[in-house]
Amino acid sequence: MKKRLSRVLNFFAFNLLFFALYLNFIHKDSNTPAPISAKSTTASVQGTVLVSNPEQYISKDMKPQGSVQSQKLSYN
Length: 76
Hints:
Elements: H1 2-26, H2 68-75
């Protein structure tokens, strides 16, 4: 009788353990509010657009250089 009682208690103990693990890790509580997702602050680039007057977008502080190679180096 003692052996049978210990088996029954072991059975309930393991069921209780697995139920607790289920509640802790798997089951989501319906009362908790959904987490607020932060909007991405990075710009999404869809493509490039040609500019008709690029001079107006170039900084006034940069002095124009004579050669194309020196302009590429000065802008980077």
